[in-house]
Design a protein that fits this description.
Blueprint (H helix, E strand, L loop, with lengths): L19 H22 L5 E2 L12 H8 L12 H20 L3 E4 L10 E4 L1 H19 L4 H8 L1 H22 L22 H7 L6 E4 L3 E4 H7 L1 H21 L4 H19 L8 H4 L5 H14 L2 H8 L5 H31 L11 E3 L5 E3 L10 H14 L7 E4 L9 E2 L5 E3 L8 H4 L1 H25 L1 H9 L10
Antiparallel strand pairs: 1-8, 2-3, 4-5, 6-7, 8-10, 9-10
Main location: membrane
Membrane topology: Multi-pass membrane protein
GO molecular function: Delta14-sterol reductase activity
């Protein structure tokens, strides 16, 4: 039943983020170039970085093309109909599992139009079902399981396919958002930040808040929630597994470092999918429209950038040993404890303030009727959970060490070289340290992302709570890192 109010379209708010249209353009068309650059510059042909990149004054373009594996037919070689077809089949598979597997249903937060959307949650079951099939295939075929070899052999073409899908999806929801009408019974509404009137910016940031589509035989899908929690996150795990298999094919064994990174990143993904209902209170769902920013982030940035460490380790294996594993494991546990305990405390307080675990905590009562915790974890910093999340990012990169390697031809007999099964030798050489650009980029990016999220949240809460928010900030002084930021 449609709500009595006719307020469906979000008010216009010409407050740009990401430096407005120029920033949106730079991100929309610059990040794909960055990911291609990472894929070529850190490779399994010549090194990480490619040797010519270490000597820019004498760089020869034709030599560089050979070193990075530039396709023989040029840019056209970045696209493959076969890879695109299988990528689309992967999305269809994810949608079928969403439809066929059992799941729980719940309502989202209250919308500005007064309605609540219903969501079905079974991402965790879908991923486990898919991974079980992959495990069976690996048991039967080993590292030669076709999925793993296909990913390795068509990495660039799969990247291209996902970029095109993200662009197409962002364009589809942008055009479709103009059909949102006041008083519609589907509770469709526009995102406040996505109706600036600038076509490029609105396409990037997202006009419609919760775009949905009904597919034959599958039914209704909430595009934003589906893309946020399913294909990209599972793809991250699958890329990591393909990289483990690749290391085995190259060396005949698997090192503890790549196994460690693969396991902890899989745990991170599956933990998030297991707690899937928690996504309904995130800023991505409650505030942001769905445009290229989220489409590209979910479908391209996450699976391809976040798997950089295992991609690196597949070619340059590192052995941590018991002491090394214990060290990076301790960092991981510290970050996870801060992240999970702080979020659990907040969720418990929101769900039942009289819970014995949180009833003693001090809070600030706002005029909006909301209670803001100023005690426990949330008395330490306003986003102490972000600190835990960032600490968790470091164990992804630390196993790569002082990253960087060169690949030498068979028979070089370089000192300290690690030999591949085909005879090629891998040594740090003059590339040592330069690989950090690739393997530690995630840590830097994630830190910047969390700071940006914190500032967006601060702006949102300032509008919502007014003077109460300023009072809250005087009580809880630190944003993310106590006594630092």
């Amino acid at each position: 039943m449609a709500p009595k109010t006719t307020q469906q379209v979000a008010p216009r708010r010409h407050q740009y983020e990401f430096l407005g249209p120029p920033g949106a353009a730079a991100i929309s068309f610059g990040l794909p170039i960055l990911l291609y650059s990472f894929a070529f510059a850190c490779n399994d042909i010549s090194g990480c970085p490619a040797p010519s990149l270490l000597h820019p004054k004498t760089l020869d373009l034709e030599v560089l093309k050979r070193e990075v594996g530039w396709p023989k037919d040029g840019i056209r070689g970045l696209l493959s109909l076969e890879a695109t077809g299988w990528t689309l089949a992967y999305y269809l598979w994810s949608a079928l599992l969403y439809r066929l597997l059992p799941g729980t249903e719940t309502e989202g937060t209250k919308l500005a139009n007064g309605g609540r959307l219903k969501y079905k949650f079974n991402a965790f079951a879908s991923s486990m079902f898919t991974l079980a099939i992959c495990a069976a295939g690996t048991f039967a075929r080993g590292a030669e399981f076709p999925l793993w070899t296909f990913i390795s052999d068509n990495y660039l073409q799969i990247l291209t396919a996902n970029i095109l899908i993200a662009y197409a999806l962002a364009t589809f929801v942008y055009i479709r958002s103009f059909s949102v009408k006041p008083g519609n019974p589907e509770f469709r509404e526009l995102a406040a930040g996505g109706v600036t009137g600038n076509m490029l910016y609105d396409w990037f940031i997202g006009r419609e808040l919760n775009p949905r589509v009904t597919l034959p035989l599958i039914g209704e899908i909430d595009i934003k929630e589906f893309m946020e929690i399913r294909p990209g996150l599972l793809g991250w795990i699958l890329f990591n597994c393909a990289n483990v298999a690749k290391q085995y094919r190259l060396y005949g064994s698997v090192t503890d470092s790549i196994v460690f990174v693969t396991i902890i990143q899989a745990f991170y993904v599956l933990d998030g999918q297991f707690m899937e209902p928690a996504i309904l209170t995130t800023i991505d769902i409650t505030t942001d429209g769905f445009g290229l920013m989220l489409a590209f982030g979910d479908l391209v940035w996450v699976p391809f950038l976040y798997s950089t460490q295992t991609r690196y380790l597949s070619v340059h294996p590192q052995t941590l040993g018991p002491v090394g594993l214990a060290a990076v494991g301790a960092v991981l546990l510290a970050g996870y404890a801060i992240f999970r305990l702080s979020n659990s405390q907040k969720n418990a307080f929101r769900t039942n303030p009289n819970d014995p675990a949180v009833v003693h905590l001090k809070y600030l009562e706002t005029k909006a009727g909301t209670r803001l915790l100023v005690d426990g974890w949330w008395g330490v910093a306003r986003h102490i959970n972000y600190l835990g999340d960032w600490i968790q990012a470091w164990p992804y990169s630390l196993p790569t060490g002082m990253a960087g390697y060169q690949i030498l031809s068979a028979g070089t007999l370089a000192e300290g070289a690690v030999k591949m099964l085909d005879g090629r030798e891998v040594v740090p050489g003059e590339a040592r340290g330069w690989g950090i650009i690739f393997t530690y980029f995630y840590v830097l990016y994630f830190g910047v992302l969390l700071v940006h999220r914190d500032r967006r949240d601060d702006e949102k809460c300032s509008r919502k709570y007014g003077g109460d928010w300023e009072k809250y900030k005087r009580i809880v002084r630190w944003r993310i890192v106590p006594y630092v930021y």
